[in-house]
Structures are given as structure tokens and as C-alpha cells.
Amino acid sequence: MPSTPFHFGPALLLGLLFFGTIHLPTFLIASALPDLEPLYVILSCGWQCIHHGIFHSFLAGTLAAIVLAMIMLAIDKPVRAIASKFGLEQKTTKKSVFLAAFAGVYLHIFLDSILYSDIMPFYPLAINPFRIGTAEAYAAVYGLCAVLLVAGIVLYLFKFLKGTVRK
């Protein structure tokens, strides 16, 4: 996957770095959204089934991103209220929400495509040109995601304490 929480690392850091352009709550949710599919598979079928299906493709990921963006725009008011409690007030625009939804879902698919043999990012084509799948690749992707999470938390705390998170 690399386990869903690891996806929050790149999303948090990139979301804060591009805070004026990307809607952070949408980006964070989008970065984990494709893993609802493996969660469903594991809960319904168990660990012996193939976990990654069509929603780990750019085709279905596009549909998921569009649906997520529309939902996030519809629930903007409560999302802004929650974000403001964390000092993350942001102007919500259709562009920032759609950009965040697509970037988050596609980033997730790309990172998982490096690691897992059951992912076909260009479905219906049965190819995965990103797949490396070695122990070193696993360590690199998981390690990068963990480092980016720590960097994102540090950046958030720095901006929050300086009062510069708001945009």
C-alpha cells in the first residue's frame, strides 16, 4: 500500500509546501483513498486475495478523484471548521480541491506501483512500468514516506508556531 498511514507523509509535506495552491484536507484524504479498496478486499476475502484492483489504476483513480472533489466541495463548511481548529484556514476553490484530489490519488497509485506486482496503473493495459519490487525499493519508499511525514510535521509546527499556516 505502502500502508495507508505512510501516504500521509508526502501528502502533508507537499500539501503544506503548496498550501496556497492545494486544498490540504482533500489532498490528505485523496492520498489514502485508493486503500479503501484493499481494506474492503481484506475484510471480505482475507489476506489470500489480490488486494490491489482497479482503483489502483489511473483510470478508476480519476473517477475516485472526481467524486472526492465533488464531495469535498459539498462539505466545505464543516471541513473548514475542522481545519481552522488546526490553524489551517484556507480559501477553498474548485481548482484547489480538484488539483488536490487528482494529485493525492495519482501520487498514491504511483508510490504503490513501485512496490506491488498486482497493480496495473494503466488498466486496462496489463503493464506496470514503475514496478521495482525489490527489498531496497520497499525500504526506499517506506523510508521516504516516513521521512516526509516527520518533515511535514516539523514544517506544520514551525508554521503553526509562527502563525504563518493560514492562507
Give an overview in words.
This protein is an all-alpha fold. It has one domain. Helix content is 66%, strand content 0%. It contains seven helices and no strands. It is globular, with a radius of gyration of 16 Å. The two termini are 32 Å apart.
Sequence-ordered SSE layout with sheet pairings:
Layout: H1 4-17, H2 24-32, H3 36-45, H4 58-74, H5 76-85, H6 94-115, H7 135-162
Helix pairs in contact: 1-2, 1-7, 2-6, 4-6
Briefly summarize what is shown.
The chain has helices spanning 4-17, 24-32, 36-45, 58-74, 76-85, 94-115, 135-162.
Provide the descriptors you would attach to this structure in a database record.
167 residues, mainly alpha, 7 helices
Backbone shape = globular
Compressed to H and E, one letter per element, the order equals: HHHHHHH
Q: Helical element count?
A: 7
Structural class: mainly alpha
Q: Would you report the number of β strands? A: 0
Poorly predicted segments: none
Proportion of residues in extended strands: under 5%
The description of the largest β-sheet is: none
Distance between the termini: 32 Å
Question: What is the domain total for the residues?
Answer: 1
Supply Rg.
16 Å
**Multimeric status of the protein:** single chain
Mean pLDDT value: 91
